[in-house]
Amino acid sequence: EARTIGFIGLGAMGSPMARRIAEKLPPGSQMYVYDVVQPPMDAISEAFPGKIVKAVSPKHVAEHANLIISMVPEGRHVRSVYLDNETGITAANISDHIILECSTIDRSTSLAVKKHINTNFPKAEFYDAPVTGGVLGAEKGTLAFFLGCNENDPNFKSLVKLLQHVGRQVISCGGPSFGIATKLTNNYLSGLIAIASSEAMNMGMRAGIDPRVLSQALAAGTAQNAILDRFNPVPGVVPDAPSSNGYQGGFKVQLMRKDFALAVDMAKETNAKTILGPLGLKTYEDATNDPRCWDLDSRVVFRHIGGNEN
Ligand code: NAD
């Protein structure tokens, strides 16, 4: 059956995602959007005349849309969007709704919201569905979704159909909160590889090796990795890497710090021993507080440790 779509949180990720969905709306149908600030709502509604309804609250979205995506910064924002007494999604009657919560947050917030929904609206479905691929992936529709459900889930096929407008891959991770666990695991590893790659490049360069030669050599051996290949932290090695553009674009260092902290918390909660977790977290905290790094791509950690950028 045709569902009405709602989109909450029109930031760096949410805006391009919502636009891609708006482009594919069937004739005559409308999408309900909400953000705490007005400009991104005005922008999308101007871009798609007659197709966008600017809602006044998440509750308002949920009163009209029964397939809702949310993309806000942190757990506290997710709580507010879903649980606020007067204005939250659960203040509406969401008895037949399907909800995709795409923010990168802690597992306990996601599970608490899901439990609240399942308790009060037994037929509604709530899934954690964080994404990887960044702003560029959102604009190009090449995101990957880590979906907190099983492939046999009755809604899986229709979710894939919706998400294919925004993403290239939808990976069903097994069950509630497993999408988030997958995302945090990914960013933990990718964050550590970025630090290790920065340290290794700095070391080799200080020994006198040209960074291009060094990167080629590492790519040929057991140290080969996606950071060196696509997001090389040394400016000038990979032309379209953020580092080669003054570390502009890419994944901001303060977002890496947030995700890394969530991952380290998950390791504690699950009694998973990590040796590098606290060191990695301290590194991203320090880099975030380094005025030469703030707001730049997280691979700016190379600059933070004193790498030569010339
Ligand atoms: P952003 O700060 O650019 O956008 C967040 C938006 O949410 C803003 O427009 C803000 O006004 C809105 N918002 C905040 N509180 C709200 C509320 N209570 N109700 C409605 N709207 C609210 O952040 P972003 O970069 O779009 O990231 C969103 C989420 O996606 C984060 O959890 C982030 O970690 C994750 N993520 C980001 C990237 C990336 O590259 N930026 C990549 C993957 C995942």
UniProtKB/TrEMBL annotation:
<dbReference type="GO" id="GO:0008442">
    <property type="term" value="F:3-hydroxyisobutyrate dehydrogenase activity"/>
</dbReference>
<keyword id="KW-0560">Oxidoreductase</keyword>
<dbReference type="InterPro" id="IPR013328">
    <property type="entry name" value="6PGD_dom2"/>
</dbReference>
<dbReference type="InterPro" id="IPR015815">
    <property type="entry name" value="HIBADH-related"/>
</dbReference>
<dbReference type="InterPro" id="IPR029154">
    <property type="entry name" value="HIBADH-like_NADP-bd"/>
</dbReference>
<dbReference type="Pfam" id="PF14833">
    <property type="entry name" value="NAD_binding_11"/>
</dbReference>
<dbReference type="GO" id="GO:0051287">
    <property type="term" value="F:NAD binding"/>
</dbReference>
<protein>
    <recommendedName>
        <fullName>3-hydroxyisobutyrate dehydrogenase</fullName>
        <ecNumber>1.1.1.31</ecNumber>
    </recommendedName>
</protein>
<keyword id="KW-0520">NAD</keyword>
<dbReference type="InterPro" id="IPR006115">
    <property type="entry name" value="6PGDH_NADP-bd"/>
</dbReference>
<feature type="domain" description="6-phosphogluconate dehydrogenase NADP-binding">
    <location>
        <begin position="4"/>
        <end position="173"/>
    </location>
</feature>
<comment type="similarity">
    <text>Belongs to the HIBADH-related family. 3-hydroxyisobutyrate dehydrogenase subfamily.</text>
</comment>
<dbReference type="GO" id="GO:0005739">
    <property type="term" value="C:mitochondrion"/>
</dbReference>
<keyword id="KW-0101">Branched-chain amino acid catabolism</keyword>
<dbReference type="GO" id="GO:0006574">
    <property type="term" value="P:L-valine catabolic process"/>
</dbReference>
<comment type="pathway">
    <text>Amino-acid degradation; L-valine degradation.</text>
</comment>
<dbReference type="InterPro" id="IPR036291">
    <property type="entry name" value="NAD(P)-bd_dom_sf"/>
</dbReference>
<dbReference type="InterPro" id="IPR002204">
    <property type="entry name" value="3-OH-isobutyrate_DH-rel_CS"/>
</dbReference>
<dbReference type="InterPro" id="IPR008927">
    <property type="entry name" value="6-PGluconate_DH-like_C_sf"/>
</dbReference>
<dbReference type="GO" id="GO:0050661">
    <property type="term" value="F:NADP binding"/>
</dbReference>
<feature type="domain" description="3-hydroxyisobutyrate dehydrogenase-like NAD-binding">
    <location>
        <begin position="179"/>
        <end position="289"/>
    </location>
</feature>
<feature type="active site">
    <location>
        <position position="183"/>
    </location>
</feature>
<dbReference type="Pfam" id="PF03446">
    <property type="entry name" value="NAD_binding_2"/>
</dbReference>
